[in-house]
Design a protein that fits this description.
Aminopeptidase, Alpha-Beta Plaits, 2 domains, four-stranded antiparallel β-sheet, 11 helices, 18 strands
Length: about 375
């Protein structure tokens, strides 16, 4: 039997493993639930791969899992088990299989990718040089895992990211993602008796939202989007405080620096108001140059396995692959599930593609290990 044939016979086991992971709800904000989901994953790894127990890397009350299968890391498989879905989502939207499709919170982003990665590794004759890092805070910007990711990838020949595909296409480039907070302080006053004595933080917010939105440059692939905003306390009071968040996506590091500098220069329009800029989580861009060689290798492997021809696309969302690419390690993303609906009710996985994607990962890892 070919590698693909063997994996196709194991599709029922892959679906069972996917169901186990999806039923282990793992919202990013809940460290206890993500740790519980991690224990399910540990049991699956032990059953499929045996070998060493993972290093349980702790950070700020949160656990990440790191398996090293022998020798210096040459190929790092990278993924996350946390999801955007709050605890209890399963009560109204359970894991379900309907023909060739599975649905459930987190199935596409990215628990199916984890399952495919495990079954891929289980079909390799040699795992020396392979490591697997699964984090639990990717969906909130990887605040406690970024450094772990960079250390795990250091010196590797390649990082293969098990994030979902883009309608089957691998993700050969990702925009950088930065988050900022703009806080505005004004002066309160009675809105009916003496509004002129106040300094309206809400009006200042309106000015600043327009100024920030104008910093985008579509031609350069840069979007600057004001998102969540809050202002005021009571309907009859001139608001003395306001705040809004800013989502920045850039294709090039220079653009991120340009937007950061422009935001730092924001100045009040109204007398009596002040502005403070707070920087949040940041992911540098994953440029296409970081993935070119690996993508061409993946195309060669896919053709050898008899898989459909691979496509590559650039996407606006970030992943932990952005960190490894910025560290200078060749990185190929989107090797996970074929499906759709990430972060949306009804996200789904195409089950018939799971063996194909597992075979691609297995073939790619084997080829990378042979190359030195």
């Amino acid at each position: 039997m070919t590698l693909l044939d063997r994996l196709q016979t194991l599709l029922p086991e892959m679906v069972e493993a996917l169901g186990e992971l999806v039923r282990a709800e793992s919202p990013s904000a809940d460290a206890e639930l993500t740790a519980a989901c991690g224990r399910v994953l540990e049991a699956q790894v032990a059953g499929l791969l045996g070998g060493p127990a993972p290093q349980r890397l702790e950070g700020d009350g949160r656990r990440h899992l790191y398996w090293r299968f022998g020798g210096p890391t040459r190929v790092l498989l990278l993924g996350h088990l946390d999801t955007v879905w709050p605890a209890g989502t399963l009560h109204r939207w359970p894991f379900e299989v309907d023909g060739a499709t599975a649905t459930g919170p987190g199935c596409f982003d990215m628990k199916a990718g984890l399952v495919q990665g495990l079954f891929a590794l289980a079909h390799l004759d040699e795992l020396s040089g392979v490591s697997l890092l699964v984090t639990s805070d990717e969906e909130i910007g990887s605040p406690t895992s970024q450094r772990l990711i960079e250390v795990a990838a250091a010196g590797a020949d390649a990082v293969l990211v098990l994030e979902p595909s883009a309608d089957g296409a691998l993700k050969t480039a990702r925009k950088g993602v930065s988050h900022f907070g703009v806080s505005i302080t004004g002066r309160a006053a009675h809105a009916g008796l003496e509004p002129e004595l106040g300094a309206n933080a809400g009006v200042e917010l309106a000015h600043q939202v327009l100024a920030v939105e104008a910093l985008g440059d579509p031609g350069a692939g840069t979007s600057v989007t004001p998102t969540v905003a809050s202002v005021g306390t009571t309907p009859n009071t001139v608001p003395d405080a306001a705040h809004f968040h800013v989502d920045v996506r850039t294709a090039q590091p220079a653009e991120e620096q340009r937007v950061r500098s422009d935001l730092a220069r924001l100045s009040p329009r109204l007398s009596g108001t002040r502005i403070q800029l707070n920087a949040g989580p940041n992911r540098p861009p994953l440029p296409v140059q970081a993935s070119t060689g690996l993508f061409e290798l993946a195309r060669t492997v896919a053709a050898r396995l008899g898989l459909p021809e691979l496509r590559g696309v650039a996407v606006g969302g970030g992943s932990d692959g952005n960190f490894t690419a910025a560290a200078g390690v060749p990185t190929l993303d989107g090797l996970g599930a074929f499906g759709g609906g990430a972060h949306a009710e009804g996200e789904h996985v195409r089950l018939d593609a799971m063996p194909e994607r597992a075979a691609l990962v297995a073939g790619l890892v084997a080829e990378l290990l042979r190359r030195r």
